[in-house]
Design brief:
By secondary structure, the chain is an alpha/beta fold. The chain contains five helices and 13 strands. The strands form three sheets. It has a six-stranded mixed beta sheet with strand order 5-6-7-10-12-11. Strand 2, helix 2 and strand 3 form a beta-alpha-beta unit.
Length: 199
């Protein structure tokens, strides 16, 4: 399957329109948004309306600029948007694990609990797994700023234990478009330009 991922559009409708146009092409089967598509919910409704026009599933999590309850409340009328925060979603042969918010935390007790639940829910049939988080995992090119790593250690631990095929994150604008690996997991920050991935 070929799908498109992006993050950190930050209420820029022009950027979002270009992403939507690319996502509508025939080769893309679904879209993943790793959060921060608004600036503290500015342009929330117009962005969701626009994403819905893609006409394909848009798997979406909140970033640190979207309040989960406010976002979920605004999704009830959106036909194609799938809210993935704190969820395990099986769709088109892929298992998506979603965790939004948490842009600045080195550790997250709540995420550890969810990751533990996911490990219990996953079966041998879940051969293709995509982890979607807003914050990047610790210790990769995705979270390196100057001489320090600023990512989340619990997300890294979840990647090491769950071993998803792909981990998608955003948040660190300076590292958009970069890729790294943790074990056999491809870790990417698609950023506002977006990235086409195959699984």
């Amino acid at each position: 399957m070929k799908f498109m991922a992006f993050s950190d559009v930050h209420a820029d409708m022009g950027v979002a329109e270009r992403l939507v146009k690319r996502a509508q092409k025939d080769d893309i089967e679904l879209v993943v948004c790793a959060g921060d598509f608004t600036v503290f919910e500015r342009q929330l409704k117009p962005m969701l309306r626009l994403f819905d026009t893609i006409g394909k599933p848009v798997i979406l999590i909140p970033g640190n600029h979207e309040a989960p309850k406010e976002l979920e409340k605004n999704l009830s009328s959106r036909k194609h948007i799938v809210y993935a925060h704190k969820k395990l979603i099986r769709m088109q042969g892929i298992t998506f694990l979603g965790w939004g918010t948490d842009g600045f935390l080195r550790y997250s007790d709540d995420f550890r609990i969810i990751a533990r639940q996911w490990r219990q829910e996953l079966t041998k049939d879940d051969q293709k797994i995509v982890l979607i988080t807003h914050a990047p995992p610790f210790g990769t090119v995705l979270d390196k700023l100057e001489n320090d790593y600023v990512g989340n250690k619990d997300i890294r631990q979840a990647i090491e234990r769950i071993k998803p095929n792909i981990s998608i994150s955003g948040h660190i604008h300076e590292n958009e478009g970069k890729k790294d690996t943790i074990g056999d997991t491809l870790c990417v920050n698609p950023g506002w330009k977006g990235m086409v991935l195959t699984l």
